[in-house]
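WARN retry 2 of 3 for item q-0093 after timeout on previous attempt; input resubmitted unchanged.
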Amino acid sequence: MSSVNGSTSCTWSAAAPSSRPSPPIAVRAGRSSDRSRYDPGITDLHTRKLRYFIAVAEELHFSRAAARLFVAQQALSRQIRELEDELGTPLFLRSSRRVELTAAGVVFLAGARAVVDALDEAVATTVRTGRSVTGTLRVGFCPGAALELTEPILSGFRDRYPDVTVELHEVPLSDPSAGVAGGASDVGIVRAPLTTDGIEVETLFTEPLVAAVSVRHRLADRATVNVAELLTDPITLTRTEDAAYRAFWSLEAFRDGAAPRIVETRSVTEEVQFVSAGGAIGVTAAAAIRYMPHPSIRFIPISDAPRSTCAVGWRADAANPLIDRFREVARAVLEQAPQLVSAIEDPFGASAGTGSTTTVG
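OK item q-0093 returned
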């Protein structure tokens, strides 16, 4: 059943004006002296009148129809009389006891419903089309991505924009921008800091750093360590040309200009093998405790190290409007999952870095 509430300003015109106007259509039913004033080339039937007529036809009671439409009964009666005058035929038989449809009214009801239903559907379809978001978004991510928030962000985006094609691809750690810098990705889930020339980032969360050491390492039994205790060890580092990324993960800011002894690796697997064998230590985000457990490796919080930042990254000159929508979804997920964000940002509890036992092995 078509909704009849409201009074839209749309109009129903049966046909556009032609170069040769059609003669007026005479409709005779009940009042033989009446002649229809409706001319499809001249007269427009306002959809308000159609909705009013449908309401009265369904209620067969002017007072109830007026209440349903939230209009005065007098105004409703006037609109129905105008409609009947335009058509040149009565649509209702009125008496003090009841209201009935005339034969013409029965015919007109079917047509009016069809017109109003078609109009409502056209409006709804137009609105849906106008709001529909389509296109393709290429999302790059490095191993680990946004940790436990990755799935909610991606699924949340798919749910909100089902007509968008999302292309996911994992990018090796040698490209900390997750494909954004080279244009392979429209948006990336990245680990900052990285060389940001031309790249914008929006932080998702931060987390503490840990030292990954062999169970045979001299510091393996420590609850926490500080950066100075790690500077003499060889340190694993992904092969990358990104200077900011290399400086952060090699603890360059703490070395007073001394060059670190770098053991370059091409993957997380290689890094794990070097560390577990005692050939080097690794500096990584605390999530490695959950995502890279290994019986021969201890992960120890670094009490005075800077925090690792997980962020959404995109090119500043990017033209894809879906990037902003992806960022909006990511922000919404963060707002909806504060406890999860807190657990990621403070995996050791509020006392982390103050001597509490946080070694995992």
